[in-house]
Amino acid sequence: MGKLALAAKITHVPSMYLSEQDGPHKGCRQAAIDGHKEIARRMREAGVDTVVVFDTHWLVNSGYHINCAPSWEGIYTSNELPHFIKNLPFSYVGNPDLGKAIADTATAMGVHTRAHDATSLAPEYGTLVPMRYMNPDKQFKVVSVSALCTVHNLADSIVLGQAVRKAIEEQYDGTVSVLASGSLSHRFAQNGVSEQFLHKVWDPFLETVDHHVVELWKKGDWKTFCGMLPEYATKCHGEGMMHDTAMLLGVLGGESYTGQAEVVTPYFGSSGTGQINVVFPV
Known about the structure:
The protein is of the alpha/beta class and about 280 residues long. It has 8 helices and 10 strands. Helix 5 (about 155-170) crosses helix 8 and helix 6 (about 205-220) runs antiparallel to helix 7 (about 220-235).
C-alpha cells in the first residue's frame, strides 16, 4: 500500500534559528539549513505527503508515544535554551490516521505505544526546528514520535521503527519520509565556556568516535554499528540515548541493512555536540 521514500538522520541545533537573527551569529548555521532544504527538495520530488519525526527533545518516562493531532499552531520558546529559541511561530498539519496505525502496529508487535490525536500537546523543537526549514508551506503532514526515552531499551525502539515501516507499507495509502532528529555525540559544553564551543565538539574522543561512526554508515557496515550502538550511546552521551537512531535502524532493517549513507551536511560541532545531516537509501 504505502511507501517509505526517504530516511535521514538530521540535526536540529537551536543555533539554526539563531543563525537567522541579526547579530554576531547570523548565518553561522547556513550549511545545516541548506541541508534541511535539500532533504525537503528530495521529499517533494519523491511525492512525500507525511514526515514522521523521531524527536529526541520529547521526553517520556513510560511507554512510547506519538503526537498525531490533526494540527498544531502556536509560538514556541525553548525552556532549555530560551536565549536561542524564543517566540518561534509554528503551524503544521498532522496525520492522525498514520499515527494511530503506527501505535497499533507497534503495540501488536509487543512495544506498547499510545497515539495522541485529541491532545493539546504541541511538538518539541526536535520536530519544530527541522520543519521550519523543510516544511514552511505545510506541504507535508507531520507525525512526531517521542525519542527522549529515559527508561527504555534500545531493542524496543528498534521494534518501534520496524512497526513504523510495517504500518506505512501495510496500512497507509501514501508516501512517507522518516527523520531521526538528534545529534551524534551530545556532551554539551560546560557552563561558563559555552561561547568558546559554539562551533566545536567538547572532546577529541567524542569527535573521533563520531567520525568513525559516519565512516561505518558511508561504508554500509551496519552490523558493526548495531553492535556498538549501546556503548556509543552511553560513552558518547548520545542525545536521547540515541533512541531516534535505534528507531531509524528499525525502519531501515537493522543489521541486515546494506545501504551506504550520503552526507548532505558535513559533520560539525555545535555547543560541544556533534551534528550532521545524512540520508540513507531506502
